[in-house]
Fold:
Amino acid sequence: MTDPQGVLAEHETEHTRDPGQLLRSLAGLKAACALYPDGHPSIDGHVENAYGQAQALIGDRPGVEIDILRGIINVDGESQQQASRIYRRVIDELAAMGIDSIHIDARVAPGEFRALGEYLADHHETERDTSESVAARLSSNGVAHISLGRILPVDSYEPGQEWPEAPEEIFDADYRESVDKARDAFEHFGRGLAPGASVIRELLEVIVGRASHSGVAMSQVLALKSYENLTYLHSVNVTLLSVRLGERIGLDELTRMALAEAALLHDVGKTRIPLEILTKSGALTDREFREIRDHPRLGAEILIGLDGLSPLSPIVALEHHIGFDGSGYPDLGSSRKPHPLSQVVSVVDIYESLTGARSYRDPVTPDKACLTLARLAGKKLNPALVRAFVSVVTFFPIGTVVRTTLDELGVVVRTFEDDTLHPTILLVSEDEPDAPTREIADLRLRGDDGRHIRQVAESLSADDFQFDVPRILRSTTV
Ligand SMILES: [Fe+2]
Ligand SMILES: [Fe+2]
Structure:
């Protein structure tokens, strides 16, 4: 197992008064809790370590307050520039979980760190817990002396990240037509006017019949998306990916069509929720949170009232946030397992949500999104479906910008189902974006020592570079 952040590395033996060390211990604890079963010695080691780091920080004071303000660690209100640079990745990881404030009381017991680790391991980025619900969940697990929170930006002159609502360019004509048609249909839903079943059918024909066969459309859907895609766009993407997953698991054509329809309409309940709430950055109030969580029920209600749809569509709308293990919402009774098509949509939905930007967080690269799915497998998600999905999307889909272990920059141009971690890349020059080196590197190749010559060290956002990924893809044949 790769451990790029080093969070699973041997835990420190010396406890220094370093806030970054504590944050790193917490990230390690979270990773250990996500990977190992309860009672595993590795978890004990991380608990002990986090507890020791916290005690070292607290010293003989009543407690410690660690806040991260725009990427800078503050301990009891004092900023720690150096630690902030060293522990950037851990800070980012905690921020992605919606945590930028950790307060620990001196009376904390080691067991509270264990419960905290379990909470963090369970928690994933698509869940937006309010600070009230975090506190409630922690205290119900016996954590009384640690509080986690999301802090509002203190500098009100600097607005939060605002992402565009749609991609600047859609490269595939069928995909563009799907998105345009979906926007119209969802606008109708938003105004309380249901589009007819024939409009939905026509839209599905474009998505399933044409766009889902386009590699260009799929690469755009799969890649990291630096825009906050609104419901209609998210729905088209979820449909495209669901159809692919449906093919992979061998669903027949009729079932695939039912799946496509259900996927397209799974979030239709969101058209009843004010846009300000859906795209709000910062913490949601309890009422707003409840309102968002009502979208599955609202969606089912809308779809039940429509003639000519598959009877499965309202079921999937109702169940798509219910986990394989019965967790999630709405609560329909713990013994109920979601319908298999709901389980398919859940896997795709989480991936699609993570890889898109949100007003409250940056987009997550495809490989990290796949790791999140892997962590949720067996709990919230059906493990067989996660495995099938990861083989469909691969960790580094075509078009992903990556840096290799030889510190080269490249764009993925070919992927392999049986080796999703080692795609073929076209090397590109960071300084001369218009002049790709034309050198193709097959990451599956191994040297004389049997080790891979180069591997993907990290995937990056194409927006950080000037080169034109679609143009590179169009001009490359592998
Ligand atoms: Fe949803
Ligand atoms: Fe969704």
Observations:
- The pocket of fe (ii) ion (ligand 2) is lined by residues 234, 238, 266-267, 349 (CB under 6 Å).
- Confidence is low (pLDDT under 50) at residues 1-16, 152-159.
- Residues 41-58 form the longest helix (18 residues).
- The CA atoms of residues 350 and 466 lie 29 Å apart.
